[in-house]
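Minutes, project check-in
Item: structure for the 568-residue chain
Input as provided by the requester:
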Amino acid sequence: MQKPKKKKPTINPSEGNKYTICGEWFPAIYPARRNEKWAKGMEDPLTTEMRLYCACTRWAFNRMLEGYSRKALKKQGQEIFGINSRYCDDAILKAQEIIGSQKELLTREIDETQTKLGRAQKKLHQAEKDLARAIKAGDAVKSEKAKRTVQGRKTRVKKLAAKLADLQTHQNNGTIPRVVFGGRALWRLVCQGKATREEWRNARQNRLYARGDETKGGNPNMKLSYQNGGFTLAVTISHLSEQIGTDSKGRPIMNRAPRVTGKLWLPAKHRLKMGELLLSGAPYTVELIRDNDGRYRAHITFTITAPATVTNPNRGYLGMDTNPDGVALANVGYTGQPEPWPEGFTVPYPKALRKYDGELQVTVHPNGFLSVKVPELAYSRGYRRTYLIGILAQVVVSIARALGKPLAVEKLDFGKDRLDTNKRFNRMAANFPFQKIIAAVMRKAFKEGVEVRPVWPAHTSTIGYWKYRQRYGITIHHAAALVIARRAIGFKERITKELKQRVQAVREKLIPKANSLPGEGKGMTRKVKRLVTQLDGKIPVHNGLTRFKQESFYSAWHDLKQLALSSR
């Protein structure tokens, strides 16, 4: 008896390392017939298919919130929306992913709101104390100003408390906040009369998604091929498939659905990898997105294996300090000291940057330090900023690959819980593309086989300022990059005799001289005196502490940072 053939499992979108290629699709050949049952007006079959798929996604989302299973929805969805089982299953999985992501975001939003509420309550308590002091002193001007401050902070506390209670209610009941398909921002514009309902409808029905399948040669619903020196994409129009009979179990037998075909443009740097994908027969996922101007973007995603590592941590690390306008790099050996650049070393300059002189500013110091600045990065918009960050990541990873050293980066957190009533910090944190830079560097490093090691960022700039800035004659950003690399290697930052002498020199400078005239900002203030007293107790025991305690928030480096800021 012949054994039944084992089926290959379909690709799981949540497994493996994903590689996405973005291209543009130009549909040219459409089916000649239309289905009057599913079509609306004079829309083409592709538009009808996208509308039905998006409607199925929203329907599955609502049904899954009511507790329906995926198996039951798959059968119902085909009957209600007329799409094939694969499209219907993909829509259900899309809805399932939306619900899962909203639950994760709910937990994060609760944590961020709790942090904001605690900070707002602390500020309210301080404002109430200031108001009480002003009333006691009888100062009418300060009292009026303090009353307005207290009222504003009470309003913020009340707003955050209501938001936290609402989020916690969702968490306790196992529900999620309301999801707006098509975008909440666009819906608000529609309500304000700044956007049309047609734009709103287009945003809700402009996608078509198909997962890959290893048993079907890649992707059965959206087929990629290479013909006549170029790539083509054929999209199945499943609602045009008609029933031609039933099988022995009473299930309908459908005829072959027609396809919409057209040329697929891909960036030149991805064409070779796409050709290798088609030759291997590996599964790939395709998502079509129709823009407002009617152009179609295709996102092709497939799984890749990690390339061979080309870096060795025994050689040292390339430390990277991230700034709003670029990065500072430090070439650090395994001894923890900066190493000069190798003979004949040159920084790779991307040929794509030809807009104006100074678009990419590279400054190389012979003692192992380097800075890469993109001034436009601090104020550029959307796609331009993303493009410049990609160029910056390419330069950094190319340097690490040429040196054969892993990258050491810092794990900064600029989440929404850090944003509060401090407008200056909010603007800095919102405009600082730190997360995008780190993510771009890590993606590029993975593709090039370069290791990346994130380290705790506490006090890196302070340590660099006090210990290495003057020693090597470098900027504070280069000094911070050196500290980051040393931390990745595993070194502890001890307080040396030279540092103690520097602290003593600052102390003596602030002690008022005999017969000196008083002046604003001169001499040792009460704050500086308190810092010096705290340092007298922390510095002698610092070197004997564990690395965790040395890098904690209220370590000696915290007071040294405040002392440096106070003595400027």
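Outcome recorded: Residues 1-14 have pLDDT under 50 and may be disordered.
No further action items on this chain.
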